[in-house]
Write a structure and sequence with these properties.
Length: 415
């Protein structure tokens, strides 16, 4: 009887391996099909949104030959990025401009407008209210298509000016005993943890925090925001009677400006239910503690920065959309900038920069480095010709022209 059962069972065991193999293959194929279908669905949603975004200027997008291609409304121009180069979606200008960034900050986006490569895939809409939805859709597309979990509210924070985001320092700052990398990582981890939590509160009212240009921004789903200077933020307080957590100003001053009310307040407010208020308080305290540690380290390190580092750090505040950085190459100094989506530089010799220039005002928000005797001592890749000056301008009301001039003079003196 046992032998008979064994004989009947044998064919079943023989078929088991092929069945399992087919099942796993089918399952894997289903996953791939699901991911592709899901990314296609999101891309369709993006294209629907682009019909209204900036009056349809950005046309439509499609996946083609391993690239994400954006065909502009004019029907002639396009830009493209390899799917493998997709990094994340950053908020560049609140309520106005976002950009898909390249991995490792490389120039991976080709544009027929400039016939050159760039390090971002930008979208902007002046005065519109669609920027946050587009950012959400693009982030979901990248996450779905690449299989990576990107942080929707990834910050471009640069609290430690000597150690901006993406640049690692393995050694502590000299004479400070402070390891900038550890401090920055602590801040970023606390920041990311709070953002992952806050977007779930109050029915999705909060769209996350952003640290930018010395300010903390808190965004809302209705395209509004509140902001305060980083150094003005001082404490966290929970009100369990009414279930909200405050991130308050030092001395209870009114340091938080809200576009919802059009006025200043003495704290950021985060509504949190009784089951989440302790977690909200803990995560916000962790963020504030890490923020203060970074601000203290930045204050200490700022006195020890090389003049070129201090100059480049302040250019990000003065006009980050135009001026990229200043670089010394051999006997020349290169002032890197962007214009109409293209990357360029103006070059001058160290000798001319030290001995043959004047720094003069143009108007209240503009000054320039002018060659003496109306000589042409700058070579510009923008025009491919010699120029008699290089100009610095800003529309940022928080920018200090006198400070940038002083940093520039200190840099020139150090050459």
């Amino acid at each position: 009887m046992d032998i008979a059962i064994a004989k009947k069972s044998a064919p079943v065991r023989k078929l088991l391996a092929p069945i399992v193999f087919v099942s796993y293959s089918t399952f894997f194929l289903s996953l791939c099909t699901y991911a592709q279908t899901n990314s296609t669905d999101i891309l369709n949603e993006i294209n629907k949104h682009l019909q209204f975004f900036d009056k349809g200027y950005y046309g439509r997008m499609e996946i083609k030959d391993g690239f994400l291609v954006n065909y502009f409304r004019d029907g002639k121009n396009y830009r493209k990025i390899k799917l493998t180069d997709l990094n994340d979606v950053k908020l560049i200008v609140p309520n106005e401009k976002i950009a898909i960034t390249c991995k490792q900050n490389t120039d991976c986006v080709f544009s027929t407008f400039t016939n050159s490569y760039h390090n971002e895939f930008a979208f902007s809409e002046t005065g519109g209210n669609n920027i946050h939805k587009l950012r959400t859709l693009l982030t979901e597309f990248i996450s779905t298509y690449t299989g990576n979990n990107f942080d929707r509210y990834k910050s471009n924070m640069n609290v430690l000016e000597s150690n901006p985001a993406g640049k690692q320092q393995n050694e502590p700052q000299k004479n400070t005993g402070v390891n900038s990398t550890v401090l920055y990582d602590n801040l970023k981890n606390a920041f990311d943890a709070f953002n992952a939590h806050v977007v779930k509160l109050d029915g999705g009212r909060y769209w996350g925090l952003e640290v930018k240009d010395g300010y903390l921004y808190s965004y809302y789903g209705d395209n509004k925001y509140s902001k305060a200077k980083l150094e003005d933020i001082d404490y966290v307080s929970a009100n369990k009677q009414y279930n909200y957590v405050k991130l308050g100003c030092a001395g209870n001053r009114k340091c938080v400006y809200s576009t919802i009310t059009g006025s200043y307040h003495d704290y950021f407010n985060f509504n949190s239910g009784p089951s989440t208020i302790d977690q909200t308080t803990l995560l916000l305290n962790n963020f504030l503690t890490a923020l203060k540690a970074n601000l203290n380290a930045a204050a200490t390190n700022s006195t020890q920065q090389k003049p070129i580092d201090a100059l480049n750090a302040y250019l990000k505040i003065y006009n980050s959309g135009t001026y990229k950085n200043v670089v010394v190459e051999g006997n020349d100094v290169l002032f890197h900038f962007t214009s109409f989506g293209g990357n360029y530089y103006s070059k001058i010799s160290k000798q001319n920069l030290k001995n043959n220039i004047l720094i003069e005002d143009v108007n209240h928000n503009t000054f320039r480095i002018k060659c003496k005797n109306n000589a042409s001592c700058f070579y510009s890749t923008y025009d491919d010709e010699m120029k008699d000056h290089f100009q610095f301008f800003t529309y940022n009301p928080q920018a200090d022209k006198a400070k940038l001039k002083a940093l520039l003079e200190a840099f020139i003196a150090s050459l």
